[in-house]
């Protein structure tokens, strides 16, 4: 089946540095990808919609300058957490659907555990 | 997207059938009902999707009454490995660009 891959699976960074998370659709093209964050024992919260070749659409309350999203190709979207702080520590998950298939479920990456120290 | 309401948690035992009901009173005509499973520190995994009546696959069954204001995910003969959080989502998200918004989910604990 279709696979969405995230890298890295976990990362620890120092406060004030930036971290980039990659999301790839391995065997299909995704014109749109979605980024979520999830805190312990909580549900997934949609952060933004990543659109290939155009600007991302951010959900209310999500700082676009803090969470930079780039979707330069049909198989890759990146999320960069800039000037990370401990409160940015979370589980980040991306999702994508096959743009060529009308009726298909969304596939999720395995997630990236970010710890800011 | 239609708001969904699920029980926060459910306990079961190995070999039993688990039924999780999701309420979605404001479901729209074009909305589908989709269920995802999530294990700790993993991304959600698609289980099943339906529009009306009954859908069955190798993993689960989905029962949707005629008014579509609720749905029930049925997991037959659960095992310990079915311990996870189950999310019910409702929306017209057949198109690739339509986003998925998650509710609280149901934490299912399967005991030996």
Multimerization status: heterodimer
Structural classification of chain A: mainly beta
Summarize the biggest pleated sheet of chain A: 7 strands, mixed
Annotation field: number of helices of chain B: 0
| Unreliable parts of chain A | none
- Please state the structural category of chain B: mainly beta
Q: What is the rounded Rg of chain B?
A: 13 Å
> pLDDT below 50 for ≥5 consecutive residues: which ranges of chain B?
none
Number of strands of chain B: 9
Largest sheet of chain B: 5 strands, mixed
Computed over alpha carbons, the radius of gyration of chain A is 14 Å
Helix content of chain B: under 10%
- Mean model confidence by pLDDT of chain A: 92
Strands of the widest sheet of chain B, in order across it, are 1-9-8-3-4
- Outline type of chain B: globular
- Helix-strand pattern of chain A: EEEEEEEEEEE
Give the beta-strand count of chain A: 11
The helix/strand order of chain B is EEEEEEEEE
Helicity level of chain A: under 10%
Mean pLDDT of chain B: 92
Residue share in β-strands of chain B: over 45%
How would you characterize the overall build of this protein?
The complex is a heterodimer of chains A (117) and B (112). Helices cover 0% and strands 50% of the residues of chain A. Chain A is mostly beta strands and 117 residues long. In chain A, the strands form 2 sheets. In chain A, strands 2, 4, 5, 6, 9, 10 and 11 form a 7-stranded mixed sheet that branches. Chain A is globular. The N and C termini of chain A lie far apart (37 Å). Chain B has strands at residues 9-13, 18-23, 32-38, 45-50, 53-56, 61-64, 70-75, 84-91, 106-111. In chain B, the strands form 2 sheets. In chain B, strands 1-9-8-3-4 form a 5-stranded mixed sheet, with no helix packed on it. Chain B starts with 8 loop residues before the first strand and ends with a strand. The model of chain B has no long low-confidence stretch (mean pLDDT 92). The A-B interface holds A 4, 6, 30-32, 34, 36, 43-46, 49, 51, 91, 93-95, 97-99, 101-111, 113 and B 34, 36, 41-46, 49, 87, 93-97, 99-105.
